[in-house]
Amino acid sequence: MGGPVTRVSVVDDDRMLLDGMAAWFSSVEDLVLGRRVRTVDELLADGGPAADVVVLDLLLADGSDPVRNVRRLVETGSRVLVVSVVPHGERGIDVVRAGAVGYLTKDHDLDVLADAVRSAAAGETVHSPELAFAWCRSDRPDRPQLSTQERAVLLAYASGLTLATAARQVGIRPATAKGYLDRVKEKYARAGRPAYTKVELAARVREDGIA
């Protein structure tokens, strides 16, 4: 076996899906399917890490809360990719804000899922079409409406640039960039999601799919 291997666990109550995934993953060298369980409680029963990446069904038969499920799995150090038969991606916003790296509907084929798992394992966010569409259409009050310049400064600064470098990239003066960034922070604070540091702002960029 050549490169690094990603350990994958699956939480889903669809037995046919679990069996199908097991057969399919057995032919993929860089992805090793470990535990296949029906609840998060079952996966975490031994208290150990769940896996490098956990593929989690949004709505489980035990009625557990999807947001809480994601948070519990993230606490183990796993990266969580949520999948669902629900076509409306608005639910995806909730689970990504809870710490999931992305959201896919189950009408995608297994090649797409495998690529999403690889992206998750590499530390990337999985921007599926469903999630991107939901973010673009979302008008929730906790998702501040940013101007074009506010968005540009936020993206540049949250990517790791200094404020001066971010200002130069956007084509404005540092003092002007600071004003835009201060307004971004104020809008997030008013929305009940304060973000004062670069790390917190970067988290808001990921949560809200700002691009």
UniProtKB/TrEMBL annotation:
InterPro entries: CheY-like_superfamily, Sig_transdc_resp-reg_C-effctor, Sig_transdc_resp-reg_receiver, WalR-like, WH-like_DNA-bd_sf. GO terms for molecular function: DNA binding. Residues 7-121 form the Response regulatory domain. Keywords: DNA-binding, Phosphoprotein. The keyword DNA-binding applies. GO terms for biological process: phosphorelay signal transduction system; regulation of DNA-templated transcription. It comes from Actinophytocola xanthii. Transmembrane segments: none annotated. The modification 4-aspartylphosphate is found at residue 57. This is Response regulator. The lineage of its organism: Bacteria, Bacillati, Actinomycetota, Actinomycetes, Pseudonocardiales. It comes from the Bacteria.
